[in-house]
Structures are given as structure tokens and as C-alpha cells.
């Protein structure tokens, strides 16, 4: 392991400025580094403290971040984590999220560079979510929670500063999105009636994990009236079925979030797999609701076998296969669910938190040097 | 595309104006900074089929010029 001072003395590894907060921020803004908000100056001392929670070589890339394909070394990530306001103990989970979103199925190049407004959404499961106080309850998507806000922001800073997703240069999003500032939550496992997301995906319950989704912002599903599981699911299915979604044109993996009250009512009748089947079967719109050009140029091209000779009432499904739909339980009290469409050309990635020797981590303290 | 260019084939990327800088950056990243980027008017989506043909008409002379120059 190289000494931090030695690593920082390499050409281009560090810059010298006045340590004053205003001077550092003036420099960062001038360079165009970051998300437009003030940053915590990434001094050697702060970066060193962050790296105390990294058990891997500080100068070896853990991933390459599209679209610039910049090398995400722990050293570079630590600087971004400091700038975002992360506490050092967040660092192992932050590294894991970056690794997961750089895996090929997520198609980070597409997610970053597209004109669509998606951003990588990170859902955290397992004991580390509790240890780091990552919120999965009331206001889980913000504001007000240091872990959610700063780990999510550190991810965005890495996507900008290492990945080069600079607006209008490497990130061509027509609108951008508030989700591009920070987009990280925990699943509310304590109040979920079903197995947690990471267990559904084959990991032990005591493992900690992230699931990354190339996602839009969440869209609320208000249902204060239904008193049956089918009623709640019908309302969610109706909200999922829209003509302007990327997911319609791909074998996509959109996400349904149920707050605990909706989830418990649905679970009184359905397993999670059954709820997915119900939603898939009911979330559709007739082909005739699409514009003639979208029918001719998209549906009848991409899904030629189904739609080329189809009548206007032929259903177009929001999600093609029930098993591709993701369901997570997040949120606090209230009769709400949410639907999260995706970029479409992206697959979600779940990855477990492991130490450098490949063992499942029980705590972020396992990474302490 | 960069791999094809590195093998010596005549290659080009056709893009609309707003995507030129992204294309230039990607060409640098993939080690082919001189990759020809042939620009057509934006947009390519949401236009009539006649306008799509117009975009092709805009691109075609650039493609032919590139091929002729490569052959010389």
C-alpha cells in the first residue's frame, strides 16, 4: 500500500489552493467540478480519514465510469466523498454503489449520456443500511438525512468528475432531473411484509447490498379508498400504464415502491411474485392510445409479431414479463405507493458488500484499516 | 466503431449538431481522435419520413467524400 502523501505527489493527483472554504469553492466552480453546490474542501487530512474505511489499494481502479470511462480509484472517490459531505464510515457503501452501477447490464453509458432524464437510483438493503442510518421511512427520498443526501451526492460527483457526465457534453439529458443531485434510499425492511429486495435476489438476509436502477424520479400513486389488495394493485397498475414511457419499448425493469400501509394490505392476499403477476397483467393501455407514428415506427417495428396486424384495442403492456418488475417497500405512514419508470435500455444490478478478501461484510467497521 | 477504425477501415459517425461534442469526446476516449464526425441537422427524431430522407441527403455527400478521400 502506497502512502497517501506519496500518491498525492504523483502528477495530476492533487492541486494546491488556499485552504480557505471560499477560495476552494471559487476554484472548484471555476474548474466546473461538481454539481453546482458548495463542496467540503477535500484536504489531505479529510481524504485520509475517508480512506481509513477502504481495505483495498487506494490507487487501483475499482471501476471505469462512463461516458469518459474515467478510472474510479479509491483515492479519487474519497476526494469526491469528502466534497459531498460524507462521513468516513459511508465510504465502503459508496464504493459498492459505484462498482455496481459500472457493471455492464446497467448500461451506465446510456444512462449517463442519454437525452432521457434518468439517474442511477440506489436502494440499500441489509444491516449496514441501519448502521449508517440510511433512511427508508418517512421522506426517504429527502430531504433531511445525511447518509441519503451525501452518499447520493458523492455518487453524482463521481459521475460528473470521474465519469465526465458534464451537462450538454457527456450528459445530454433534455431536462436533467432533481434525482441527478442525489438518489439513494434504504428499503424499509422492518415494515415490509415480504422478503427484502436483496434476499429476493439470492443474497442472505444478513448480507448488506445495493440495487442500482437506471431510473426516473418516482411518480406518486394515491389510493386512500381501496380496502382490498386487488384495489391497491389496480390503482398502481393504472398509474404504470402510460404512452410516453421508455419502458414500453424495451424488456424493461421498472420499479413499484409501496409504502408499508399499501404493502401490508397487498400482502394480505398476495406474495410479492403474485403481486408482480397481477400488476403485469393489469398495467396496459390499448394500442390505439398511441400516436399513429409511434404505432408504425416503434410498436410495429420493435414488436412486429404482436402489433403489425393488431386492432386498436390490442393491449400494450407497461412491463413485458412479471418477473422483470421490481417491488420495494419504502416510505412512512400514508396511503401511497409510487411508480418509478426507467431508461428502458438498462438492467438493475444487485451487489453485496464484501471486504477485500471476498467475505460478506457484517459492518462497515470490517473495512477499517 | 473505434475498433473498426483502428483496423484501418474507412469509418465515420453521423450525428446531429448537439451531439458533436459528445462524439468528439468519445472519439478521444476510445483512442481515435481523428474519427470523422459527419454532422446532419438536428433533430433526427420526431420528423416526417421525407425529412428523414432529407437528413440522408445531407449525410450522403459527406460519406461519399470520405470514401473518395480514403481511396486516394
Report the count of strand segments of chain B. Answer: 2
The parts of chain A where pLDDT drops under 50 for at least 5 residues are none
**N-to-C span of chain B:** 22 Å
Helix content of chain B: 40-55%
Mean pLDDT of chain B, to the nearest integer, reads 94
Oligomer: heterodimer
User: What is the total tally of β strands of chain A?
Assistant: 12
| General form of chain B | flat
Strand arrangement in the largest pleated sheet of chain B:
1-2
Distance between the termini of chain A: 11 Å
Q: Quickly give the structural class of chain A.
A: alpha+beta
Rg of chain A = 22 Å
The residue-averaged pLDDT of chain A reads: 97
The number of helical segments of chain A is 14
Summarize it.
The complex is a heterodimer of chains A (369) and B (72). With 369 residues, chain A is of the alpha+beta class.
Q: Which properties best describe this structure?
A:
heterodimer; A: 369 residues; alpha+beta; four-stranded mixed beta sheet; globular; B: mainly alpha; 11% strand
How would you characterize the overall build of this protein?
The complex is a heterodimer of chains A (about 375) and B (about 70). Helices cover about 35% and strands about 15% of the residues of chain A. Chain A has about 375 residues and is α+β, with helices and mostly antiparallel strands. Chain A has a domain at about 1-215 and about 350-369. Chain A is globular, with a radius of gyration of 22 Å. In chain B, about 55% of the residues lie in helices and about 10% in strands. The model of chain B has no long low-confidence stretch (mean pLDDT about 95). Chain B has one domain. Chain B is mostly helical and about 70 residues long. Chain B contains 3 helices and 2 strands. Classes of the chains: A alpha+beta (about 375), B mainly alpha (about 70). The interface of A and B includes residues 67, 68 and 169 of A.
